[in-house]
Amino acid sequence: MPLRQRVEHDSISPVEAAISPLPDDVEALKALVATMARRAEEAEQNAATATAKLANAMAHQSAIEALIAHLKLQIAKLKREQYGPSAERSRRLLGQMELQLEELEADAAEDDLIAEEAAAKTTTVTAFERKRPARKPFPEHLPRERVVVPAPCSCPACGGDRLSKLGEDVTETLEVIPRSWKVIQTVREKFACRDCEKIAQAPAPFHVVPRGWAGPSFLAMLLFEKYGQHQPLNRQAERFAREGVPLSLSTLADQVGAAAHALMPIYKLIEAHVLAADRIHGDDTTVPVMAKGKTDVARLWVYVRDDRPFAGTDPPAALFHYSRDRRGEHPQAHLAAWSGILQADAYGGYGELYREGRDPGPVLEAGCFAHARRKFFELADVVSSARKKSRGQRSAMIYPIALEAVQRLDALFDIERGINGKTPAERLAVRRELSAPLMAELHTWLTEQVAKLSRGHDLTKACFYMLKRWDAFTRFLDDGRICLTNNAAERALRCIPLGRKAWLFCGSDRGGQRAAIIYTLIQTARLNDVDPQAWLADVLARIADHPATRLDELLPWNWAPRTAAIAA
User: Fold this and answer.
1) Tens-digit pLDDT profile for residues 388-440
2) In what order do the strands lie in the sheet with 317-323?
């Protein structure tokens, strides 16, 4: 042994030599290092495998949750389509389910990628592949751009150059082209007559707005974005500026006002159509309006003509009006020349319309069972009470009388779902056979409950809501055209609460009136399954030179889009 090694060996105490895990031999030490490296690699592989399996399990769980949410949403939609709304908050619940599905689908997609990345680091684990529903093909009307990948010049297997084409595989990818802008220059050449020295020139092209610069497609987009998609003009102006087209807010506002004025004849035709009906739905909602540095609470009223529940052939339409307050004089003015059946809530402002001897004719009240049911439902909301209790909040009392009232009213709704879309005579026959006995029993039962309850109890108020208007609530037993609810008007008003969250308030009373005009056009187009923006663009392009006696051709239910593209 060399002297240095011997000295170092002799310097190690017997105790250190006894507890040292390392061998003294170099070869043994190398073998130990190799073994430890192999074990570390195996541990790393095992960790990667465990991670991949865990990622697969998480991806599988996310896929199952997304599938369950998707199936629940489909079931809820099918039930609503077949049976109608079964509860007051069914629409909100559907919206919540759709939002939940969005998040679960995003989670599942993210977990799929994580599982794929984790499996790529192993040799024994296969990445989880989620089964997705077959995607519908892209619409045929979309333009196709072929990008041909260069074919190989020689066989990659043998190197031969004798290749023959067998076919091709096409993979489609959906892409979007950013919105493009263009300026259309209309050139009108001038000519001078050499005989009389007069100047000849083609007439100036039509503009929707006098001395205007905006084409009908641009104006339609402006109106639909503001009133149909609830995008205020300031946000639209910001987006236009980012796209390289700076337009001031005042400039855009000028175009909106002028376009609304140009569309007024169409609004008047829709108004006449709605007020020609024998039965309409009426409702109103709040809309904030600026007034002297603060906001006041104004109202938007809607009157809906919808004859589809009793197989009517007349097209549906929605008529909006604006008022600064909710005084009864406003609906009285809106319906001053109308008589028929009004389906609405129990707002006292309609009372003058129901007065006997009214000129030009009587207005008959038809009660809304949805409003009546809601008053009982709020006192029998078991789900909401359980949810509050689970959160440690104070839950409202559940009244058995309210539960029974909801069940009795739901039995009437069940009958109505079976006769929806049938003729008035068919509906009336079923109602007299099935609904009339239930209504008689309901009247007796409500009277008995009122006798048991205190005068100021919420249940008493709910009972009296129907008993005091019993003629209005039983009118559907004598007329097959009447619906049980006023949901048609409430659906038409749904756009207003959505808009309030975006534009916060109307700038003035004139702005509220203008909103009523455009809402009338957009909601009527939607009721007739017509694209509002495309329809508005075509109407704005044609209305100036369209014969006044044939303006009804431009109404949504009569509209036929032109095949030729609109220039400006």
Assistant:
1) 555 555 556 678 899 899 999 999 999 999 999 999 999 999 999 999 999 99
2) 317-323, 294-305, 279-291, 340-343, 363-366
pLDDT score recorded for residue 87: 47
3 state SS for 361-418: CCEEEECCHHHHHHHHHCCCCHHHHHHHHHCCCCCCCCCHHHHHHHHHHHHHHHHHHH
Quick check: is 347 in a domain? no
C-alpha angle with apex 263: 258 to 267, nearest 5 degrees?
135
Cα–Cα distance between 485 and 411 in angstroms, integer? 14
SS3 for 297? strand
In this structure, are residues 480 and 309 in contact, taking their beta carbons and an 8 Å threshold?
no
Which neighbouring-strand residues pair with 190? Answer: 201
The count of other CB atoms within 10 Å of the CB of residue 446 is: 20
* The pTM of the whole model exceeds 0.85: no
Q: Which domain holds residue 249?
A: 190-263+531-554
Question: Do 444 and 544 sit in the same domain of this protein?
Answer: no
Confidence of residue 49 (pLDDT cuts 50, 70, 90): confident
pLDDT in tens, 467-492: 999 999 999 999 999 999 999 999 99
Establish if 344 belongs to a structural domain: no
Same domain, yes or no, for 478 and 537? no
Strands (E), 228-309: 279-291, 294-305
Task: Judge whether 131 lies within some domain.
Answer: no
The amino acid present at 144, given as its one-letter code, is R
Number of separate domains in the chain: 3
List, in order, residues 6 or more apart from 223 with CB less than 8 Å away. 256, 259, 260, 518, 522, 536
Judgement on whether residues 454 and 393 belong to the same structural domain of the protein: yes
CB 465 within 8 A of CB 372: yes
Q: Are residues 113 and 33 in the same domain?
A: yes
At a CB cut-off of 8 Å and minimum separation 6, what does 533 contact?
220, 221, 224, 228
Cα 287-290-291 angle, rounded to 5 deg: 120
